[in-house]
Design goal:
heterotrimer; A: alpha/beta; Ribosomal Protein S5, domain 2; two-stranded parallel sheet; globular; B: alpha/beta; 2-enoyl-CoA Hydratase, Chain A, domain 1; 6-stranded mixed β-sheet; 11 helices; 10 strands
Chain lengths: ~110, ~230, ~300
């Protein structure tokens, strides 16, 4: 029993990609503020899209998984690592930031 | 420790330091050399008036006594929390005091801070933390903000902050922590004149605090991040 | 050229993120970031409190050009932890300032938006702010102007409010605020009669850009527009003003006389009373006037 708050929740998802992203400069969108999140997208070895999330809004694993699946269906990227710092953004905002990040990928 | 007890232990009963409200001022002789003493007492809240009074004392010493070392005696509850002081630019008055102390440093005056009771936030930034180095008595306490106010601003419960203050160096107000983090150079124990003598002799003139924090283990990232920026392509 | 071609679209500085401000302020594509997000130089203290970190710990730093001239630039992200200075955030600023001593850019631009010390990092943040102050004064003493730009919604408070006034030049928009303690802290301490933190007009009369301009606590007043901030930054490139005893004596006289100017008890609004005593015409109408009009009223 402790008065120290419970930590962040870490979530990981990995999808087999189809569309190679190739080499690109890392992209950052969003800001870690209340109800918001930041998304960092980087090239990665291999053909997966690997997603790592750290969030202060604990217990929403099922929803995160659904949002990530939907994202990967829209953008089945291969060779990409996505890292997220989240402070309670809604699924709509999460999807928006992910799509924004993809739109900023340049070779 | 009461300021007069401290002053007497350092300089003898006829030290000549006077108290005017919350302001302490005087010129003492230490090891037969004159030393200017400037400071506050009564856990003074630092408003525009008191910031300017201290700055006046520093500027007078720079103008009239080039090279004279100054000892800043620190006991403050931080900035005065009044709308009037904000209107009148308390942040500017505090910057002015800080810049006066910093100018004295650059012009070769030895500037030493000593937290002898408590130091908070802005009151500390513009005194001990801008001197060549800041030392402290072992029983002194240094804080950023009182816990109830901190709880309101951070939305962390008071109970959580109280618990962290006991166990976590980043939150605990004891000066031992500040030494470990490099914010305080050394503690004065036992022989007060010997401690002052040592400080006058050994306090650095460049800002070593991040390196001290790294060496002492209390603040492990600052120095390496600074170096990384210096080395970045 | 048609009127549409020459019309400038105004971009709100307040509504931009820190990175957007940098991108729009400096010459196009000239910003090169040090310790970018991908390097993940993050806070070691936040996770234990269940608070997410930011990949850049809330401040972007690097070099750029401004009107073709080399500058160093830092922008604090007010949305992350209120722009509060933690151990890493502060060390990035100190590193930038120390590098400026070595590389000698034409200026260091600090886009400040901060509540001061990041309370979640308490002691580490307090020491960090002090190290930033020391490093800034080193740069100033070396004859490299440090220019602080203030115009974000969170203002520039706490230890950063002190740091700002150590710079060679302070540029504010009317949206910006510069002070020490936030109104909520003062209200919590001394009651709503001392400072009603929900009275926005009162808060801006006390700490906002127009007041700081009229009282002399900022050097330039601009509209809430990125181009206006850019122009002011360019004008500041040759504004080095090293601290001297003479300058501090002038500063002291100004602050001391202002203290005497405002009686302990004032009938009516204190800000208006202060402006009137400073000889500002139309003091009671300042809040309604636009930036151009207020600019013309300064007497100090």
């Amino acid at each position: 029993m402790s008065d120290i708050p419970a930590g962040l929740e870490a979530l990981n998802y990995s999808f087999a990609g189809q569309r190679a992203a190739g080499h690109f400069a890392p992209v950052l969108v969003g800001v870690v503020g209340s109800g918001n999140l930041e998304v960092l997208m980087e090239p990665a070895a291999g053909s997966n899209c690997d997603i790592h999330i750290e969030t202060s809004a604990r217990g929403f694993g099922t929803i995160w998984e659904a949002v990530m699946r939907d994202f990967h269906q829209r953008h089945p990227l291969a060779g990409v690592r996505v890292s997220i710092n989240d402070m309670g953004a809604t699924p709509a905002v999460v999807s928006l930031r992910l799509d924004q990040a993809v739109s900023e990928l340049t070779p | 420790m009461d300021w007069n007890t401290l002053a007497t232990a350092l300089f003898g009963a006829d030290h000549g330091i006077t108290q005017e409200g919350d302001l302490l001022r005087g010129t003492v002789h230490f090891d037969r050399e004159p030393l200017a003493v400037i400071g506050t007492t009564n856990h003074a809240p630092i408003g525009v008036r008191l910031a300017l009074a201290q700055a006046r004392a520093v500027l007078d010493t720079i103008a009239q006594h080039p090279g004279r070392p100054m000892l800043l005696l620190i006991d403050t509850q931080g900035q005065q929390l009044r709308r009037r002081d904000e209107l009148l630019g308390i942040n500017r008055a505090m910057a002015h005091l800080g810049m006066a102390i910093d100018l004295a440093r650059r012009r070769g005056h030895r500037m030493l801070g000593l937290v002898y009771d408590q130091a908070l936030s802005g009151g500390f930034i513009t005194s001990g933390l801008i001197a060549d180095a800041c030392d402290a008595l072992p029983e002194a306490e240094i804080r950023v903000m009182r816990i109830p106010a901190m709880a309101r601003v951070t939305k962390l419960p008071e109970a959580t902050l109280n618990a962290l203050s006991q166990t976590n160096p980043v939150f605990a107000p004891g000066v031992g922590n500040y030494v470990a983090m490099g914010g305080v150079r050394a503690l004065w124990q036992g022989d007060m004149p010997a401690a002052l003598r040592e400080a006058l002799a050994n306090a650095p003139v460049d800002d070593r605090r991040a390196l001290d924090g790294q060496e002492r283990g209390g603040r492990r990232l600052s120095a390496s991040v600074v170096q990384r920026v210096l080395d970045a392509a | 050229m048609s009127a549409l071609d020459t019309a400038k679209v105004s971009v709100s500085y307040a509504e931009c993120s820190a990175r957007e401000r940098i991108a729009r302020l400096v010459d196009a594509e000239s910003f090169h970031e040090w310790l970018p997000p991908a390097e993940r130089v993050t806070s070691p203290h936040l996770a234990q409190l269940g608070v997410p970190s930011a990949f850049d710990d809330g401040v972007a730093i690097g070099r750029a050009t401004l009107a073709g001239r080399p500058v160093f630039i830092a922008a604090q992200e007010g949305e992350f932890m209120g722009g509060g200075v933690g151990e890493v955030h502060g060390a990035k600023l100190v590193g930038l300032l120390r590098r400026a001593l070595r590389d000698r850019p034409d200026a260091v631009l600090l886009l400040a938006e901060s509540g001061g010390v990041r309370l979640h990092e308490a002691n580490a943040g307090l020491i960090a702010v002090s190290e930033v102050m020391r490093a800034l004064l080193d740069v100033r003493a070396a004859g490299i102007p440090v220019v602080v730009l203030i115009g974000g919604a969170n203002g520039c408070f706490g230890g950063m409010g002190i740091v700002a006034r150590c710079a060679d030049r302070v540029v504010m928009s009317d949206m910006g605020r510069l002070a020490m303690s936030g109104p909520e802290v003062i209200e919590a301490s001394h009651g709503v009669d001392e400072f009603d933190s929900r009275d926005r007009a009162l808060v801006w009369r006390t700490t906002g850009g127009k007041h700081r301009w009229l009282s002399g606590d900022c050097d330039v007043l601009v509209e809430d527009d990125v181009t206006a901030f850019r122009d002011a930054a360019i004008a500041a490139l040759d504004a080095s003003m090293p601290v001297t005893l003479a300058r501090l004596e002038l500063e002291h006289a100004l602050l001391a006389s202002r203290l005497r100017l405002l009686p302990e008890h004032v009938a009516g609004d204190e800000a208006v009373a202060l402006w009137a005593r400073l000889g500002v015409a139309d003091a009671s109408r300042v809040a309604e006037l636009d930036v151009d009009a207020v600019r013309a009223l300064r007497t100090v």
